[in-house]
Amino acid sequence: MRGIVLAVVVFIAATGTSPAQIAATQPQCYENVGCPDKDRITKEQARDLSCQNLWLVRNTIYYQHGYCFQNERGRQTFSNSRCTTNSIASLPLNPIEGANVALLESIERRKHCQ
User: Fold this and answer.
1) 25 pLDDT band (50/70/90 cuts)?
2) What residues pair up with 85 in beta bridges, in sequence order?
3) Cα 52 → chain centroid
4) Whole-angstrom Cα distance, residue 84 to residue 80?
5) DSSP letter string over 31-57?
6) Exposure of 9 in the CB half-sphere (CA atoms within 13 A)
7) Burial letters for 48-77: b for 16+ Cβ neighbours within 10 Å, e otherwise?
């Protein structure tokens, strides 16, 4: 939904920071889905998200746990300056984050997101 992107854009405009700077210093919360580190995202909420927002929420979770992005899109959106691992499987996700990532990935596959 536009709310996720709008919330990030409003924060950037107000503070002059990039999405990577936001995600690195605090858990990121999103309008319409809450905080993916502590709030379970429902199927209905995930289905309403665009491919871009599904990708953003999922990869913000990875970024906050130190993932080193390998592709250009990830490196442009997030900084690798604080990354610690190239392995998503080794990220210390809590059970809620793990469930949210699995749900977001499944919705991305159903929508044929790239």
Assistant:
1) low
2) 67
3) 10
4) 9
5) TTTB-TTTSPPPHHHHHHS-HHHHHHH
6) 6
7) ebeeebbbbbbbbbbbbbebbbeeeebeeb
* Residue 21 pLDDT class (50, 70, 90 cuts): very low
Q: By the 8 A CB rule, do 29 and 35 touch? A: yes
| Contact by Cβ (8 Å): 74, 59 | yes
Distance CA 63, CA 84 (A): 10
Q: What is the pTM of this model?
A: 0.77
The tokens describing 50, both together, are 């665009």
Q: What is residue 106's predicted lDDT score, i.e. its pLDDT?
A: 97
User: For the residues 33-50, what does the mean pLDDT come to?
Assistant: 93
Going from N- to C-terminal start, the domains of the chain cover 2-110
Stretch (H or E) spanning 21: helix 19-25
Q: Pseudo-torsion of CA 64, 70, 76, 78, nearest 10°? A: 10
